[in-house]
Specification:
alpha+beta; 142 residues
Length: 142
């Protein structure tokens, strides 16, 4: 059976692709910006690691809001990909960094690392996109 044929089989992902779980999330950029404005730096420190704050700091307020919204969406997509293994994850247990090309890279610590191991995943990939006032992210676990 070809991959194309396997993808048409209802309710099944082909084992040959190695995809074990998918999570997706969307964040309203303006809503997040307003929350940060209301709650201040304390909220930012609760949601983001030092490295994530550094990635989003020093840019325009608009870019900063989109950067933070994309990371929140990616963290939530990762939690969803973990399913029941992801219960109790803290916001900073998943860090969304960047590789040399600028692509998002998930880094797992604490409870997220434990969830990844309990789920027996071998890889985790994240993609983030921004458009029309929203940030959307998808996480794919193998």
């Amino acid at each position: 059976m070809s991959v194309a044929e396997a993808l048409t089989v209802r309710g099944a992902l082909p084992q040959s692709l190695g995809i074990r779980a998918v999570g997706i999330d969307i964040v309203d950029v303006e809503r997040l910006r307003a929350m940060v404005e209301r709650r201040g730096q304390r909220l930012v420190e609760r949601l983001f690691t030092v490295n994530e704050r550094a990635l989003c700091e020093g840019t325009s307020p608009r870019h900063r809001a989109y950067c933070m919204a994309g990371r929140i969406a990616a963290k939530e997509a990762v939690r969803k990909a973990f399913g029941g293994y992801g219960e109790g994850l803290g916001w900073r247990d998943v860090e969304i960094g960047r590789d040399a090309s600028g692509a998002p890279v998930p880094r797992l610590t604490g409870r997220a690392d434990e969830a990844f191991r309990r789920a027996a995943y071998s890889g985790l990939h994240v993609s983030i996109s921004h458009e029309a006032g929203v940030a959307v992210a998808i996480a794919v676990a193998e």
